[in-house]
Amino acid sequence: MGVQIIRRSEIPGINQITLNGHLHTIGMVKDFRKNPDLNAFIPEEGNISISWVHLNRGQIQKLHTHPIDSMIIVCSGASYSIGEKEDYLEEGDMVIVSRGAHHGFIGAGKNGFWGLSIQFEQHGLYEKEEKPLVDFINTDYPDIDEIDKKNPHFLAIADNNEFYKKEFEQ
Questions:
Q1: What is the dihedral sign for C-alpha 111, 58, 152, 95?
Q2: How far apart are the first and last CA of the chain?
């Protein structure tokens, strides 16, 4: 095979799933195994799953749990983590999610965020769309502008962070 370039646009994506008869919007998930060249390259016995994930600004991935550990790496843009750990995330930040932990995300930044979702066991969270490894928790979160206004911690970040000012005040 030599050297091969695979563009993010060449990985098929899904943006919603039906679980227990309910339709859930999940932003954009692009499981690496959905691309035939990546699927052939990633060893099956390696027990690793990698997916691009994306949320537009203000788009919410509702609180959910899954039966396997997961790691999210923010590659571009910004996000808020919600659930058991609520915080502002920016490029280079990582979130480690233990199995069963309540978590979700809200896209922030001017254009939301792109990240990598990585699991090291079984298969990817959404690899089998008809049987995803998630369980959504019915909790409503306010819109992102309300979060920005009401959370003093994040306002302090905005007051002292040039990146935040550039991303959010445009």
A1: negative
A2: 45
